[in-house]
Amino acid sequence: MATQTPKNYSAIGKRPVRHDGADKVTGKAQYGADLNLPRMLFGKVLRSPHAHARIKSIDLSAALAHPEVKAIVTSSDLSPLPDKPAEVGEDLYANMKYVRDRILASDKVLFKGHPVAAIAANGLHEAEELLSLIKVEYEVLESVTDVESAMSENAPILHGTIRFASMSGDEVHGSNIASHDQYILGDINEGFKKADLTIEREYRTKTVHQGYIEPQNGTASWRSDGHVTIWCSSQGHFGIRDQVSTILGLPVSKVTIVPMEIGGGFGGKLPCYLEPLAALLSKKTGTPVKMFMTRSEVIEASGPTSGSFVRVKIGVTNDGKITAAKGYLAFEAGAFPGSPIGGATACMLSPYDIENLQLDGYDVVDNKPKTTAYRGPGAPIGALAVETVIDEIAEKLKIDPVDLRLLNAAKEGTRRSDGVVNGKIGMIELSEIVKNHDHYQTPLEEVEGKLRGRGIAFGYWRNNTGPAACVATVTPDGAVNLSEGSVDVGGSRTAIAQQLAEVLSIPVEDVNPQVADTDSIGYTSVTGGSGVAFKSGWAAFEAAQEVKKEMLKRASLVWDAKEDEVEYADGIAQHKSDPELKLTFKEIAAASNGTGGPIVGSAGVNPRGVGGSFAAMLVDVEVDEETGKTTILRCTPFTDVGKAIHPAYVEGQIQGGTAQGIGWALNEEYFMSDDGKVMNASLLDYRMPTSLDLPMIDPVVVEVFNPGHPFGVRGVGESPLVPPLAAMANALYHATGVRMRELPMSPTAVKKAIDNAKI
Prior knowledge:
The protein has 759 residues and is α+β, with helices and mostly antiparallel strands. It contains 20 helices and 31 strands.
């Protein structure tokens, strides 16, 4: 571990056992689908069998007449939403109608699995069987399921309301292009004129899913006073509250979301799916209603990330200096606008200092489920293109690939493609650590008759922040109950508790962190964007400062002294002029009720000072020439985390992102039929890597202190997924001599490429 942090800490940087660990390993932790309430009914969703069709009629008569059907909801039960743009929760929708139609289709279905109606019954299987009583008449329309076809002149149009405005200002009606973003720095034409070498390449990637273990769920109980409580697993219960409020036309004060434990999300559990339906069914029946997806429903009808088409052109001088870079990116948004195109264009060139660049990003709808975030949304696809071209440049110029990156490395003061000027960043430090690492310095062992190669790639994620709240209550025995608003996906409860414990100089084991419901804590933005340890950690830092002030006040009351005569250090309050007067944290807590009442510290923050994170991956592979199968021999990912609050959880985040990147690179994809159906909607057929497919992933934690945070924190959850796609592609090239520019690089694809190269 390399460190540049300014001091050593008592709680931060340690590896305490996570507070929720015992419950999770013993099965006591409560996930969304574990909840059972008295008189509870079960709900199921009727989904479209077609990828694109007009709904001509929905006949509910037979279902309503059946005694086992307790309630049915269709889109007519949702709040009528205006035909205009709006922000709902933390998602920006191009049209409010899309918000409603994503939950239940109204006039058209736009992907196979699109919800059309929902039903409640006494049992889960009963509800599923009773769906067949709902008769829907469809007019089947032509579908389109890849981005290039969706952009073609004769493509079937999903939304008549989309009006695409080009950069020239011309509007195009009847288009699947929802938006066009453009970033320009310098003079792109002059930049390419200065280049001695220019390389331009095209790339294509398929739709992939986040692959979390736990399916989406929601249990709702609607009270007679119009207040609804929903228990669910999500990445942001305040975001779910706001979405449910909008979709049902309720004030946010009438919606309470209780966060359950979450079995993975990676960005895919930011939107709501079942929660509004369970709420409406509960309203109609007067009893709680529980709903959860099957695995096939998760793959077919929750948000994956985009398939894409990308073209990148980079020019360099003979000594390796990048003079210009140009990118064209078209991303699938699925059924409704909102692909992660912004993450790709903002991050793909950010590891480098490039004076002249132009990036054009297109958000394109097609007949697949609406995309959602996936760990550094968009950035891995952008990095795939840039980092493989950089690798090709290094080879042609005979420059060490890390030296080439160091020559062009972004630094403090560099302006990124999105216009942001970098503060203190760690690209140079990270690159130097990669170059000096044993893995990079040790030559790849060659074995006769084996195709072996080594690949390196770098990546960047900008990291996010947002509003966050914490309340710290000191108990009479000297413990601290810490309520916070960030859903815990990867051990953040403990990381936030460590930051509070650091300020108070108390053992982190004496902190009891809990994720509070939306009625019990201030608004906290989602667990996403690698922002939780940053923003909620900052809220805990501020709450701890309030507790410390109270501790000083209580000690001064005991000693009948002025507050400024008392100091607090190492968990002890001490009189400045009489060192014999000392009170420990626990002693002050024990006397708190007699010296002013309970000691409570609270904070609501919306901190700035976010620090972007750079990552790299070094990987050695062996390719079987007969089958095309790729075996990973050694894998070393590097990530600048600012300061590792809990190093074990940081290492786990790096390993997890790397594993997902390997799966995305080598195997994962949606197989689509000609009529728009997902053909591999199960984990038997959707090929995610298992432990048998992965080597020991040996993470290197780099710490370049972020001056924009009290403890130097940078996000770590997303940047590790950015380099693997390109690193694997570069390694495969150096093993086989064949450049793979389409993902996944499956055994079949690799074997075909090797065979074609021999012709």
